[in-house]
Amino acid sequence: MTDYLLDGGVLADGKAVQVLIKDGLINQIESVVSTLGATNLQKISINGCIILPGFVDLHTHLREPGREDSETVESGSRAAAKGGFTAVSAMANTFPVADTAGVVEQVYALGQATGLCDVFPIGAVTQGLGGTALAELGAMADSKARVRIFSDDGNCVFDPMVMRRALEYVKKFDGVIAQHAQDPHLTKDAQMNEGLISSKLGLKGWPAVAEESIIARDVLLADHVQSRLHVCHVTSAGGVDIIRWAKARGIQVSAEVTPHHLLLTDDLAESYDPIYKVNPPLRTQRDVMALREGLADGTIDIVATDHAPHPAENKECEWQAASFGMLGLETALSIVQATMIDTAMMSWGDLAMRMSTSPARIGGYADHGQGLKIGSTAHLTIVNPTRAWKVDRDLVASRSRNTPYHGMEFPGSVVATFYRGIPTVLDAKLESATHGN
Amino acid sequence: MRHLLSTSDLTYTQAIRILDTAAEMARISEGPVKKLPTLRGRTIVNLFFEDSTRTRISFEAAAKRLSADVINFSAKGSSASKGESLKDTAQTLQAMGADAVILRHSASGAAQRLANSHWTSGSVINAGDGTHEHPTQALLDAFTIRQHLRVGTGDLRGLTIAIVGDILHSRVARSDVHLLSLLGAQVILVAPPTLLPIGASTWPVQISYDFDSVLPLVDAVMMLRVQQERMSDFFFPTAREYSHYYGLNADRLKKMKPTAIIMHPGPMNRGLEITAECADSARSVILEQVTNGVSVRMAVLYLLLAGAPSEDGEITQ
Amino acid sequence: MSVALPAVDIARALTRIAHEILERNGGPDSIVLMGIPTRGAFLASRLAALIAGIEGREIPVGTLDITLHRDDLRLRPLRALVPTMTPLGGIEGRNVVLVDDVLFSGRTIRAALDALGEMGRPKTVQLAALVDRGHRELPIRADYVGKNLPTSKGQAVKVHLSEIDGVDEVLVENVEV
Ligand SMILES: [Zn+2]
């Protein structure tokens, strides 16, 4: 096994260090490390770059099994590595749905075989995402995939009794229900944020209250049954307020925001280009600012990508006929830097917390999110905050091209990713070899 | 002007020019010669993804009077009703050399999507897109109002026009609001709160829930079609209650100015939003709207297609 | 660029045409002047004034926008339509004199004949042009010509009238081919 010496980088707090990766573990972090005993040592210069713990995504649509035309575990893993992720969480809305031990073990095994990052499956809450009968949550938890996060994402667990039972049931193995908060009755055929823009465009509105009312109900349920709730992709100022209130009451709720909801607003729909069609929808500038504040003050715990690949034909059509969703893995870091760090709302340490430590804790991914701890597995993400780049949809690692950021320029990039002590990305390019078992 | 997608894209000058051109078209249409060589050799496609016989026929008549070749393409009901078919169909029409596509679609924004895509290079005319806009309907409404209340020239300054009914789902209402206010009219939207879009108060309109209080103020009332299925979505309790508060009937007719006119984009639900008595009264200009529709569409086709292609599409004298 | 017809010559030519029209039609009674916009309409008004000066009474004048009747619109920039004004008393059974500034290919006049057809059925249709520059593409000729101006196809003839251009003159320009 090759050992690595990272030279010329800084920690999140700005301290200049060398890092020695030995036998896949973080061996030393010192201003000058001792390389005695290192074998096959490769020195990597990362002048001016920031060394962060490997990013963990709690919300990734990898589409396998069933929609391999848009993404596979392999292509999604490549996109993840390129974006600095060392672990992703594969959403359950595949075909078949990940609602049995068999499917989650298959996805987990595909991830291990690819070997570019850990792929932790999320199990469905209800059978077939149908919202009525609980899936075998225990069997998925006990499977080789060790599922701890359960979500019907794409659908809301709308029946309050089903939601209550799910929250209660997962306490047995310290699981968490990740809710896609969307009242289906208030959002029938909804296309975009309900507001001035939707009224003008004649697109059916998706009111923020459809999200907020479910969040409010669910935090009260989580409180009542003393269980853990995770709120997927919060989009509205009102949602942030409710979560802030719940946390102040000591309710065990965590929440995520997507990069696109930190950056983009509903007026982009004026082009009627469905590249901006996403569930939940882009909201207003006021909501964007509330989400940034919520992420900065910790009300929102983490950034999660909701990476949602779609084939071209699902976007090259009229808005109503298009699929919801946009790519996220490869641009996440750049957007969080642009919206949170470069605006002085967050430090790099905060970013490490929101993109590594906290998501790993919520998902129970013990091998990840350990920070830069001596002796822990060397999952590292190296960021060059001044290496600007322009997004090109033709150059993405994902199998799909539905990025809304095509042509946009961002201030910083992921230049290297280490997964289990092995570089999956160097010099901002994917390492060609697959290091799986 | 290369496309006509929305009345909100029109400048005052462009709007007046379309109406003035339509007036010339109307004058010619009254004469014995029904066919002009103006657009000879041009191919115009009526691409209808949604049924609307009256709109299609109106565009077809307009195109034929100007000697354009017209191809009718009804995508409704074919396998092509979903999604990507708009692209496929547009590319097919492009290959056939369409100079203009008149698009009717149930999806809001379909016309804009087509115009901004590389799927076709021709002009795109929006003949109604979902619940977004229906610009030629608004133009014929403005034209009709101008004929009756403004001696057929100039703008609509000083006039008060009520648009009554299902504003939320009405593409006609959106187009009318932009155009009539652009031309200087005061627009009052009259509807139950459930049928007004969120944020309509930021539009250049007044809003009223009370039809009766508005009636004496208006120079024209535009009654919108109310679809029966709105009841099942709780927009109003019953058809009877809707008619009671928002239907135009003989009693309400008496409260209007003697000069005020009654309009309806059709097709009408007689007995729901308008009684037969009102629809057929001397104050009704509903059939004239249909006639004017052809002149307005001739004007739009002329202005979009008659000249040599130029960068800015501006008009020379 | 050269001045082919200065203001004084234009005035003289119009006066002559006014007399010729009266002579040919045996007096003013049956005459209707129809100007083809833009400049033909101004010329028609001037001829009407000249005839009124000679005869001491007004004759009917109208305008005829022929844009929609052209079949060569694709070759030139889009034109705004100019309202057509039917002369008082119409054209039915009258001797209609079409008035245009320059007679060239004859296509404008062909379109004008079509346009006139929608308005009614005149007894005769005659044509007055300030300038005839030749190069006819249709069997059309003018009954009254201000000046025959032999030109090549590479030249452009521009008529300026004081009503719209501030000055009366006819220019011949060599344009690049
Ligand atoms: Zn979701």
Task: Describe the 3D structure.
The complex is a heterotrimer of chains A (437), B (317) and C (177). Chain A is α/β, with parallel strands linked by helices and 437 residues long. Chain A has a single domain, classed as Metal-dependent hydrolases (TIM Barrel). Chain A is 27% helix and 20% strand. In chain A, helix 7 (237-248) links the parallel strand 13 (229-231) and strand 14 (253-257). Chain B is α/β, with parallel strands linked by helices and 317 residues long. Chain B has helices spanning 12-30, 53-65, 85-95, 110-116, 135-149, 171-182, 211-214, 239-246, 250-255, 276-279, 286-305, and strands at residues 43-48, 69-74, 100-105, 123-129, 160-164, 186-190, 206-208, 220-223, 261-263. In chain B, strands 7-6-5-8-9 form a five-stranded parallel β-sheet. A four-stranded parallel β-sheet of chain B has the order 2-1-3-4, sandwiched between helices. In chain B, helix 4 (110-116) links the parallel strand 3 (100-105) and strand 4 (123-129). In chain B, helix 1 (12-30) crosses helix 5 (135-149) and helix 2 packs across helix 11. Chain C is an alpha/beta fold. Chain C contains four helices and eight strands; from the N terminus they run E-H-E-H-E-E-H-E-E-E-H-E. In chain C, the strands form two sheets. In chain C, strands 3-2-4-5-6 form a five-stranded parallel β-sheet, with helices on both faces. A three-stranded antiparallel β-sheet of chain C has the order 1-8-7. In chain C, helix 1 crosses helix 2 (39-55). The longest helix of chain C has 18 residues, at 7-24. The model of chain C has no long low-confidence stretch (mean pLDDT 91). Chains in contact: A-B, B-C.
